[in-house]
């Protein structure tokens, strides 16, 4: 297409663009009205007509009690901007499967990246769990959940080792180009018409169990799981677990095994490809843990037994098992028992191989290889070690967790970033010097300490660069230097945390949070 034609097209689309601005641009500049707090925080919601799903929470009076519980206008504004962000901006398409007219499909983008991640989409929906009730209407939140579950099932049936996906063909939306993936060499191979990126991350599989269990738990809608392709997908995923369970780098004779999955990418970032020509670093089989080639940050693991992802898998195998029972067929009932047994095996694997002693204290390692090597760190992305009580693997009062937490929130964690703007866990994805507010949010969600919670809340609202949205990472010495202006998941998580504090620590929401000194 010629340059002139492009210019003409842009001109023709000019009116539509003016009505609904590109949110990636919109999210990077300040908009009226101001928050009327000392930080002068921007208003960030799109016009009602531009919202991708109408959430009535802020319009129908449901949020009034939270508003009246707060006295800090900057806190309220950050909540108002961030909580609806996924529904306001990230529901790219909602419709039905071509071959099954009542099979709802929801395509949710991460925000600034035009693709659907299994992990992000489950978590993007998780933020709205407190509002979820059984509802068969196509305009309901429940329908959005069902649409995500159905689409995830479709993705997993074809590409269970992939992490991010393209719009369903029914949407008519063209697949997004992913230049960094265009030369990836991946086994098993995949089709780039439906897959955006194919990094095998154990937590992606666990995310499907997560959203399924959470939808079932909130609605009691067992019948939904018996329709469409959910059962097929669960059985397929379960087969993948079965294969992975017997996975290891070498077989019993010491011969290198045919890998279940391998990946190489041409990149100047070590975390974007796997060592040993795509196999990853060696891991010892048969210890009750599941390998994960990549982390929830989409960075390569160093040791493939990623403990937080194994914790998450154990937790959601247990949580999803009751759905299988509720389906009332004997085959599913057997799978349900197997799922629970598998969770027990993973828990034993974690307790036996995932705990190491550091400074005289027993702590969970981030990653182990089964040969005795362990990586002591945490990464901000959920599942992280810090978030283990949040996703329900253990109780926050667990001794080993408390030891681990103290270590992770100190210089003992190589990815704990400190500075005048914000101090929080980060990770190799954006590198040293960049703290992730998501980790501050998780710190609040897993804390019972009022002082700690208040301090973290103040840091989060201080560090949005007056934009009032939750960014991916922030330079701990310069709040204008941040990554991902439109990171839908983190925004929803912030709102979910406010609802949690409203239920658990309402007096903290009533405080005002004086602006800290910043460089
Ligand atoms: C708030 O920030 C906006 C954008 O920078 C600016 O135009 C406005 O004057 C500020 N208001 C106050 C009260 O500082
Ligand atoms: C949301 O409501 C507005 C009117 O307030 C409407 O213009 C818009 O189309 C609705 N959006 C969706 C996705 O239904
Ligand atoms: C179901 O959802 C629709 C659309 O949001 C809403 O109008 C209706 O009141 C809901 N029904 C129930 C029973 O909650
Ligand atoms: C998919 O791969 C083909 C062949 O390499 C390429 O021509 C095409 O542009 C790719 N599609 C996308 C959406 O990247
Ligand atoms: C189900 O709901 C109960 C009560 O709200 C909660 O304690 C439990 O953690 C939930 N389970 C899942 C899998 O979300
Ligand atoms: C399973 O059986 C129970 C009890 O008979 C019934 O209430 C429920 O609706 C059935 N579930 C499904 C998915 O059919
Ligand atoms: C609570 O948090 C504050 C601030 O992080 C810390 O100084 C204090 O020691 C904590 N108290 C307890 C009982 O852990
Ligand atoms: C802070 O970051 C912004 C955005 O990257 C940059 O323009 C500015 O120069 C930085 N300030 C300092 C003091 O480094």
From TrEMBL:
Q: Which GO terms describe its biological process?
A: carbohydrate metabolic process
Alphabetized UniProt keyword annotations: Signal
**GO molecular function annotations of the record:** catalytic activity
Alphabetical list of SMART domains matching this protein: DUF1237
Give the signal peptide as a residue range, or say none if absent.
1-18
The record ties this protein, via Pfam families, to: Glyco_hydro_125 (PF06824)
**Which InterPro entries does its entry note?**
6-hairpin_glycosidase_sf, 6hp_glycosidase-like_sf, GH125
- The superkingdom listed in its UniProt entry is Eukaryota
From the Swiss-Prot or TrEMBL record, give the protein name. Glycoside hydrolase family 125 protein
Native source organism of the sequence: Aureobasidium pullulans EXF-150
């Amino acid at each position: 297409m010629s340059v002139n034609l492009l210019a003409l097209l842009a001109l023709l689309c000019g009116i539509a663009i003016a009505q609904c601005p590109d949110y990636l641009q919109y999210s990077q500049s300040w908009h009226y009205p101001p928050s009327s707090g000392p930080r002068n925080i921007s208003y960030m919601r799109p016009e009602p007509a531009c919202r991708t799903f109408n959430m009535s929470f802020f319009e129908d009076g449901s949020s009034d009690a939270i508003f009246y519980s707060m006295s800090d206008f900057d806190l309220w504004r950050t909540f108002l901007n961030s909580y609806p962000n996924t529904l306001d901006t990230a529901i790219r398409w909602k419709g039905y499967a071509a071959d099954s007219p009542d099979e709802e499909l929801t395509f949710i983008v991460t925000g600034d990246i035009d693709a659907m991640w299994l992990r992000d989409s489950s978590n993007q929906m998780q933020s709205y769990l407190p509002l979820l009730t059984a509802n068969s209407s196509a305009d309901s939140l429940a329908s959005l959940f069902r649409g995500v579950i159905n689409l995830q099932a479709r993705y997993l049936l074809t590409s269970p080792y992939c992490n991010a996906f393209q719009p369903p063909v029914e949407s008519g939306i063209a697949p997004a180009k992913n230049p960094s993936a265009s030369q990836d060499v991946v086994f098993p191979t995949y089709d780039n018409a439906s897959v955006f990126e194919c990094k095998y991350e154990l937590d992606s599989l666990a995310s499907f169990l997560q959203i399924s269990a959470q939808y079932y738990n909130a609605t009691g809608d067992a019948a939904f799981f018996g329709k469409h392709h959910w059962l097929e997908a669960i059985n397929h995923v379960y087969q993948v677990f079965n294969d992975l369970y017997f996975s290891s780098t070498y077989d019993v004779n010491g011969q290198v095994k045919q890998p279940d999955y391998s990946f190489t990418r041409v990149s100047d970032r070590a975390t974007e490809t796997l060592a040993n020509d795509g196999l990853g670093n060696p891991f010892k089989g048969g210890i009750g843990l599941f390998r994960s080639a990549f982390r929830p940050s989409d960075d390569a693991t160093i040791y493939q037994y990623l403990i937080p992802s194994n914790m998450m898998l154990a937790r959601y195998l247990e949580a999803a098992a009751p759905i299988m029972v509720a389906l009332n067929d004997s085959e599913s009932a057997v799978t349900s028992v197997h799922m629970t047994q598998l969770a027990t095996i993973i828990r034993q694997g974690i307790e036996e191989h995932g705990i190491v002693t550091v400074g005289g204290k027993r702590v969970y390692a981030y990653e182990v290889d089964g040969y005795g090597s362990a990586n002591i760190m945490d990464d901000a992305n959920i599942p992280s070690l810090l978030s283990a009580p949040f996703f329900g693997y253990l109780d926050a009062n667990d001794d080993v967790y408390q030891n681990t937490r103290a270590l992770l929130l100190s210089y003992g964690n190589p990815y704990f970033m400190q500075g005048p703007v914000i101090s929080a866990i980060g990770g190799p994805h954006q590198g040293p010097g960049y703290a992730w507010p998501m980790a501050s949010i998780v710190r609040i969600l897993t804390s019972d300490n009022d002082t700690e919670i208040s301090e973290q809340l103040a840091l989060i609202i201080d560090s949005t660069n007056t934009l009032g949205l939750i960014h991916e990472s922030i330079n701990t010495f310069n709040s204008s230097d941040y990554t991902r202006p439109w990171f839908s998941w983190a925004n929803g998580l912030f709102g979910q945390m406010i609802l949690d504090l409203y239920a658990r620590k309402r007096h903290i929401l009533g405080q005002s949070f004086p602006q800290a000194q910043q460089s």
